[in-house]
Amino acid sequence: MADLAKVAGVSAITVSRALRDSPLVNAETRARVRDVAQQYGYAFNVSARNLKLRRSMTVAVVVEMKPTVERQMSGPYPLDLLGGITQELTSTGYSVLLTSLQGGALPNVRAADGVILLGQGAHEDAMHEVQRWGRPMVVWGAVSRHESQIVVGSDNRRGGALAAERFIALGRSRPAFLGDPAHGEFAERLEGFSTALARHGITPIAPTVSSFTVGAGADAVHALLQAHPQVDALFAASDLLAIGAIRALIERGRRVPEDVSVIGYDDSPLGATYVPPLTSVHQNFIDAGVLLARKVRALIEGEDAVSETLPTHLVVRTT
Amino acid sequence: MADLAKVAGVSAITVSRALRDSPLVNAETRARVRDVAQQYGYAFNVSARNLKLRRSMTVAVVVEMKPTVERQMSGPYPLDLLGGITQELTSTGYSVLLTSLQGGALPNVRAADGVILLGQGAHEDAMHEVQRWGRPMVVWGAVSRHESQIVVGSDNRRGGALAAERFIALGRSRPAFLGDPAHGEFAERLEGFSTALARHGITPIAPTVSSFTVGAGADAVHALLQAHPQVDALFAASDLLAIGAIRALIERGRRVPEDVSVIGYDDSPLGATYVPPLTSVHQNFIDAGVLLARKVRALIEGEDAVSETLPTHLVVRTT
DNA sequence: TTGAAAGCGCTAACAA
DNA sequence: TTGTTAGCGCTTTCAA
Fold first, then answer.
1. Residues B42-89 pLDDT 10s
2. Nearest 10 degrees: CA dihedral of B65, B67, B70, B71?
3. Which of A163, B17, B51, B131 could connect to A263 by a Cys-Cys bridge, CB 3.0–4.6 Å?
4. pTM for the full model?
5. A253 and A167: one domain?
6. Is the CB of B29 under 7 A from strand C?
7. Counted domains in chain A
8. What sign does the dihedral B35-B40-B41-B47 (CA atoms) show?
9. Distance of residue A43 Cα from the nearest chain B Cα, in angstroms
10. B148/B84 same-domain check
11. Given an 8 Å threshold on Cβ–Cβ distance, is B110 in contact with A56?
């Protein structure tokens, strides 16, 4: 910058201002500085700015990417979420630092101006962990679980209720829920599901399924049919689980949807293209990502932000 | 650091060294400094280090996350790739800066010590774009296309050959390839496919399909059957395309696999759980991510790195 | 094994 | 509208 200043015949601070489009600098001067910068291939030094400004213009996004059995963040969802976040953040000069829970130890991550946590984890353990990092934080997960935190999530209760209402409309009377209520989002889905069913005097069976794989869904349904052969409707906490469930149903000679109705969650391409095409509760992950990004940014910039619930709707297909 | 130095009764530079585990500092001194740092909740300032060292300890990963029709990076693959990259990079102190092609303008991205590009784009346009950023770069894509670049990719030619060999073994004689050779990886798959078939005197039909959606696959197959009703084997450049193809085949009254064999690419969960379960060429994205990470790191640290091809294998299922 | 001095490149505060 | 001064927090000489 000092060199540019010399060449352009101004002071370093003027160069700094020109490059930042400060209104304090004459349009002509700015143009000249910019030209010179261009011409000499000047490269701005972010570290120096960050040092001076005490910020990093960086938001850490915590995702669990490890291939684990209990892999909630598989499929295209986190990528959509990440897409929304990245789009919104980069359009305002922030960068996205991708990290896992373990990454909290990295200096770069510690220096992030804010954190977005994707998935609060079973029993909110991930959330508590990240909270210890002491940065402005926004979470994607179950909104109802945390008054004290800023959480963006889709309306899981409504999602559950939609599934229940659909089953009622179809005349089903022995529904089951497949999922693990230890995860706040799933607990909300079950709550909405149960509450809506209760209005019709129905209590769902709810075996805990703590993996999110096709296999887990199939196993759970095999066990379920053994204990409750009269089940006629299955609401799964994810499309993957629903697909496993359908497989098990067919293996046991039940027809879908004639004998048993099945509703999944997430409206994933996997479910949409499955045979039979899966009825599923839809959530818009890209919008969610944008919203998460706006909220951390607000927090970082000292404004306040509130939790928010995104609408959800049922996509009726064959099952 | 200066404050810590005072409290610990040493100089700032000693604190610096102690915190970095420098061998130049006495073990006792180090322990004392660390204790004090811990106790006072000292937070290391990355920007200052980066300013001094002229590096950012950051690697930009360029992914196309925008929801476009031609969305090569959909599905779980990029997340696996990202998982492998993140795991490897963070274990050596680097952070992952997630960005898109447009993100190249961001100061943080420009400051990255290296770049990993996921997918070279049609006609390698993405690659040329990123190359202009002037940073050490490693690309995930078609290895054979670029002598001058460091590319990691799976063995697409072998993948194509595996599909061809399978068709031959099944006695198929009128195969087609579905995909867009403008993308280097797909061109390689087609090359391997054609070459292996040529050994049996067979030339595949290869209509260009430039979208990567289920719908595109279906449309392409409808058109294909119109022109070439005798087709008895379909090799698709992705599982999504293969699934669309199967749908169209069934709509036209062909049985899979009795009348027409279908092989997809990527071995995605979507394909594996599809009905009928899709035969597909498998690639290991996590390993690939780790490899990409190692190679940029080598480049950044002044070592040299070479392009590398990862093995590929056929997962035979029903189709 | 420890320390003193100097400076990385930027911008805020204050002057002119 | 422009410039001067100072300093953000770290690490690399070089010296002790």
1. 989 999 999 999 999 999 999 876 654 344 444 556 788 898 999 999
2. 40
3. A163
4. 0.91
5. yes
6. yes
7. 3
8. negative
9. 9
10. yes
11. no
